[in-house]
């Protein structure tokens, strides 16, 4: 397993963050892929494409792909990381990458069921 999942590359279009309190990334709550995001597996990891915003992000290892694809199956992000084999001590780079994805609306908070 690589030491660090690649953080998706993206441009910030606007400094304004409406609803920032509602969408602020918290790894202790549930998250999921936005319904308008498609995941395309690639040999290096995956491409994420958001059909609403037209943003493209790269996931550069398969572990982060597994975490992203399984987020909806876990009560919180940390549990999803553990489920993908990432120990608590190694979660920091994954949490950072997931926070970047949340800031770009690739990930959204999961509604309570």
TrEMBL record:
Q: Which domain of life is it from?
A: Bacteria
Cross-referenced InterPro entries, in alphabetical order? MftB
Q: What is one Pfam family matched by this protein?
A: MftB_chaperone
Region of interest: Disordered: 1-29
This chain belongs to the protein called Putative mycofactocin system protein MftB
Tell me the name of the encoding gene. Answer: mftB
């Amino acid at each position: 397993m690589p030491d660090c999942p690649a953080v998706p590359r993206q441009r910030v279009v606007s400094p304004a963050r409406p609803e920032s309190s509602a969408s602020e990334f918290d790894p202790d709550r549930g998250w999921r892929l936005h319904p308008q995001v498609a995941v395309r597996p690639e040999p290096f990891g995956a491409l994420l494409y958001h059909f609403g915003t037209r943003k493209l992000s790269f996931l550069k290892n398969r572990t982060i792909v597994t975490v992203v694809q399984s987020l909806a199956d876990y009560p919180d992000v940390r549990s999803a990381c553990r489920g993908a084999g990432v120990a608590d001590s190694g979660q920091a780079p994954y949490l950072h990458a997931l926070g970047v994805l949340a800031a770009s609306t690739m990930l959204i908070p999961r509604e309570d069921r």
